[in-house]
Design a protein that fits this description.
Helix content: 10-25%
Number of helices: 4
Number of strands: 6
Oligomer: single chain
Strand order of the largest sheet: 2-1-3
Order of helices and strands: EEHHEEEHHE
Length: 181
């Protein structure tokens, strides 16, 4: 026996057929990301229009912003927000981002993490998650020098300072890769 999914809108007893996908851009200094976020809401045909303002309510905007920034993304620009309703049956793997390497259209699978050793304390390493993501192919090609241009170094030093850490030399920085979900 197959259980029917019910519409999440208030006390609706209709079967749910649609799930909203929020498409939004996040912009940071020199970094732009187009993201697709799948909502946990499911609704019937009648309540699709009711769900749109709910997904973009002030409380949800705040929750979305907090979650994305905690994950290392720049602040989302809700002026670019677009909601697309997809049939629930069409759920498949959704790739959120593409590789940051210029010209690459492969799906990103790895987030670059800077591992910066302390200058005097042996074994003390500070890890900074970046907004940079790469595919399997480009993971092998990324080197620390890619993050040592003046703009990237300044951003790294600002992040360290925000954590209350003294400026560190980036000469011994290594890169680590965090698998994306």
């Amino acid at each position: 026996m197959k259980l029917e999914r019910k519409c999440h809108w208030q006390s609706c007893d209709s079967g749910a057929r649609w799930q909203p996908h929020l498409h939004i851009e996040c912009q940071g200094v020199g970094i732009g990301r187009a993201l697709s976020l799948i909502s946990t809401i499911e609704c019937c045909d009648e309540h699709r229009e009711n769900v749109k303002p709910y997904v973009l309510s002030d409380a949800n905007r705040e929750a979305i912003t907090t979650k994305l920034m905690d994950e290392g993304y720049p602040e989302p620009n809700f002026l670019t927000a677009r909601i697309e309703f997809k049939p629930i049956e069409d759920r498949g793997p959704v790739a959120v981002e593409t590789c940051n390497r210029e010209g690459c259209t492969e799906f990103a699978r790895w987030r670059i993490v800077q591992a910066i050793p302390h200058m005097t304390k042996i074994g003390d390493v500070e890890r900074l998650r970046t907004n940079l993501v790469v595919c399997d192919k480009h993971k092998a090609e990324v080197v620390p020098a890619d993050l040592l241009d003046p703009e990237s170094k300044a951003a790294t030093h600002r992040a360290l300072k925000a954590r209350g850490l003294a400026l560190r030399s980036l000469k011994r920085m290594k890169l680590e890769f965090e698998a994306m979900r």
